[in-house]
Amino acid sequence: MANSKYDVTAIGNAIVDVLAHAEDKFLVEQKLAKGAMSLIDPPTADRLYGLMNAGVEASGGSAANTIAGLAGLGGKGAFIGKVANDKLGEAFTHDIRAAGVAFDTPMLVNGATTARCLIFVTPDAQRTMQTFLGACVELGPEDVEEDKIKNSQVVYLEGYLFDPPRAKEAFFKAAKIAKQAGTKVSLSLSDAFCVGRYRAEFLDLIKNHVDILFANETEITSLFEVDDFDKALQQIKGMCEIAALTRSEKGSVIVKAGETHIVDAEKGVKVVDTTGAGDAYAAGFLYGYTQGKSMAQAGKLGGMLAAEIISHYGARAESDLKQLAKKAFA
User: Fold this and answer.
1) Can you list the domains of the chain with their CATH numbers?
2) What three-state secondary structure class fits 121?
3) CA–CA distance, 144 with 147 (Å, rounded to integer)
4) Which residues contact 16 (CB under 8 A, 6 or more apart)?
5) Which of 286, 306, 59, 37 is nearest to 159 (CA)?
6) d(C-alpha 22, C-alpha 126), whole Å
């Protein structure tokens, strides 16, 4: 499917991020689980927003970040996700289309507002996310665009979609269409707490539906309920076609058909904010994969993109990504 209209179609929560500095003391006072993503209701969203330091607003959402990164590299991407017909929804739509991504999901009218994620970045660059899903919960199977999935090399799904029930239905519909069309199914585990909520379902998914899995060290060890990365690595072998596992400063490990590729992390990166690092890695890897590059090259580009993202605030790139791709593939 190298001549597909799209390299990747991503399906995920369409969210506007609000990022701000916070001290660890604040997280303790507000009883926020450091480094995790937690779902919150509208009153909590309003209260925490009122307590935030001056912040930066940016379009986000895990799968949306990934597809925007892929487009920045020169890839052909499409996105399926739900926003409301409000100012944040208009901002999200403008941003993702401006990134070069096809986005045609109908806006929600007379319903919940566009989702937002309040991201508290502590001095150690860890991000603690409090997410109000808003319009995202209205994403349903009727929003799955069959033609986009059939005309893609890969459909990329985020684990966070398992939180809203109708989005989960959309998830399975997309996976079924992809399998019938010969489109590869890719899954990001998203978050260790997400894995804890849906462990059995994720394991079944990976065994029976997923071709390409993305997870970080915490997520993959949580999936198999082990305390050692190597134990998890042995268990994921053979469960899906490709598993790309990120390990922060230790780089990444890619497993495919009995082969194990170890990719070193980029050197000399000053970590400012880890928001979106995994999303960026997936963008780089999927771009390399859909361009027919080797596992090592795809992993290298993923690591380079992640390094770019963590060097500044926000989950969208600030550099010329096409130059990164040239360097990775040289």
Assistant:
1) 6-13+61-112+134-328 (3.40.1190.20)
2) strand
3) 9
4) 57, 58, 59, 60, 88, 91, 92, 114, 115, 116, 117
5) 37
6) 10
Separation CA 167–CA 47 (nearest Å): 27
Spatial distance between the Cα atoms of 44 and 310, rounded to a whole number of angstroms: 28
- What's the rounded mean pLDDT across residues 110-126? 91
Q: Would the pTM count as exceeding 0.85? A: yes
pLDDT band at 314; cut points 50, 70, 90 = low
Of 126, 130, 136, 127, the C-alpha closest to 51 is 130
The Cα–Cα gap between 189 and 82 comes to 20
Which two three-digit tokens encode residue 110? Answer: 């007379």
Contact 185, 11 (CB under 8 A): no
- 66 neighbors 280 (Cβ within 8 angstroms): yes
CA distances from 321 to 2, 37, 279, 307, 308 (A): 21, 27, 14, 12, 9
